[in-house]
Amino acid sequence: MGIHSVVLIGAGRVATQLGLTLIRHQIRILQVYSRTASSAASLAKVADSDFTDDLSNLNQQADLYIISVTDDSIRQIISRLNIKNKLVVHTSGSVPMEVLAPLSGSFGVFYPLNTFSKEKNINLSATPFCIEASDPHTEQNLLDLARIISSDVRLINSEQRAVIHLAAVFACNFTNFMMVNADEILKKQGISYEILLPLINETIGKLSTISPKEAQTGPALRNDQEIIKKHLEMLTNEPEKQLIYQLISEQIQTYFSKDKS
Amino acid sequence: MGIHSVVLIGAGRVATQLGLTLIRHQIRILQVYSRTASSAASLAKVADSDFTDDLSNLNQQADLYIISVTDDSIRQIISRLNIKNKLVVHTSGSVPMEVLAPLSGSFGVFYPLNTFSKEKNINLSATPFCIEASDPHTEQNLLDLARIISSDVRLINSEQRAVIHLAAVFACNFTNFMMVNADEILKKQGISYEILLPLINETIGKLSTISPKEAQTGPALRNDQEIIKKHLEMLTNEPEKQLIYQLISEQIQTYFSKDKS
């Protein structure tokens, strides 16, 4: 059979980018649900589909129902889901597959490991898709669907997926917050953030050829106490940034000195 | 006149990449100094130049002497420098230009804002070069030289340069350490780090079109206490990572809640 039609439950960033990608691969979006009618309507317009803000009103004909809402809301959505013997997945990094077990049909997880914006469309063709399923038949269907979208499709269980999501918080969210700090530091001197872009691109570009451990540089790694002290003094009036600088510098020193011994 | 020949004082990562770049642009390296003869010899071989490990033995004929050593060593090198009425620069982000004032000739700063590896050659053509000089004539000479290498050459005073370097520690060194943490978290589950590369590339790619502040995502931004709690529990046996997770999540929440008010 295969999956040819989808109902999107959620109209946020992941639902939007996943929906746009599915359409590009000739999968039909039959309906978009969001508790906010205007969000559902706006994604439905792009997806050329129906929309609803009433869960009891879900289209009953789709091959697949994709729940793509905040982790907090998934359980609540599931408890109110008004469909029988259907295939249902969620797209969350952290929520175990088993929350879907109360449903009458088959179920699984369809987790694209990336960061999603509303403003910026994303090409998912190289994005790792982490797949988990209630049974081998469903697994095959979800793998087939993911392989239409991406060249990197993996079977990942709930425990591994939670670890991957935790690692992603460090690699993506915390990294971005380091950039927020850098931006603020420069702004106070009237210097535009884009001066850092070549440095940032090189920092990340390295990681395709050497490991993060090999790629580490900077005053803390060199144990350059004079610079560290000077930097901490420069941050005297910004206690939050000073705290980050101190903690991370100490941890870099500890981590790499352990490594030598 | 212009600058046609250089002595490199230092044979580390910056000296090496700068030296290789200068050669590609037909600037001659006359000599490489390092206190470690083997390092001097190995860079000299690539640069087709002399080398020495004796500062009293410096070649006296170069148009420019580039001091590219650790910040700690710069002052010591300067106090022992055995050249008269020559143009001398250092390449440090944090050391004020005025440390070069005791020298008899003209002086300046030639700071390439990037991250340098020994293993990986770098293309400096888009790297910002931060230039500062003792006098207008020297300034022009250094600007001309930097413009041979890069399309992004700026006059930056010592105070601004120190701020840029501090921002770079956040954007590059601390960012890389977030990747070290992500790598370690995955390793414990036997998952290879490269699963994160598309996410990381997207995280950084965004920053060419939206600001870090607009690009922020993640559990802390969404104030998703359930996930934050779960992640902290997963890190129970790794107190260092738990500390980073807690501090940065709290700061993300504080920063973005301030922002709303």
Mean pLDDT of chain A: 95
Oligomer: homodimer
Shape of chain A: elongated
Going by helix content, strand content and strand pairing, the class of chain A is alpha/beta
Helix content estimate of chain A? 40-55%
Summed up, the helix count of chain A is 10
Head-to-tail CA distance between termini of chain A: 58 Å
Total DSSP E strands of chain A: 8
Low-confidence stretches of chain A: none
Largest interface (CB within 8 Å) is between:
A-B, 92 and 92 residues
Q: In this structure, how is the largest beta sheet of chain A organized?
A: 8 strands, mixed
Sheet with most strands: strand arrangement of chain A: 3-2-1-4-5-6-7-8
Q: How much beta of chain A, percentage-wise?
A: 5-15%
Note the run of SSEs of chain A as H and E: EHEHEEHEEEHEHHHHHH
CA radius of gyration of chain A: 22 Å
Set down the secondary structure blueprint:
2 copies of one chain form a homodimer.
Chain A lengths: L4 E5 L3 H12 L3 E6 L3 H11 L2 E3 L11 E4 L3 H9 L8 E3 L16 E6 L16 E5 L2 H14 L3 E3 L2 H30 L9 H9 L6 H4 L3 H4 L2 H10 L4 H22 L1
Parallel strand pairs in A: 1-2, 1-4, 2-3, 4-5, 5-6, 7-8
Antiparallel strand pairs in A: 6-7
Structure description:
The structure is a homodimer of 261-residue chains. Chain A is built from 10 helices and 8 strands. Chain A is of the alpha/beta class. Chain A has an 8-stranded mixed β-sheet, with helices on one face. In chain A, α9 packs antiparallel against α10 (239-260). The radius of gyration of chain A is 22 Å and the shape is elongated. Chains A and B meet through α5, α6, α7, α8 and α9 of A and α5, α6, α7, α8 and α9 of B.
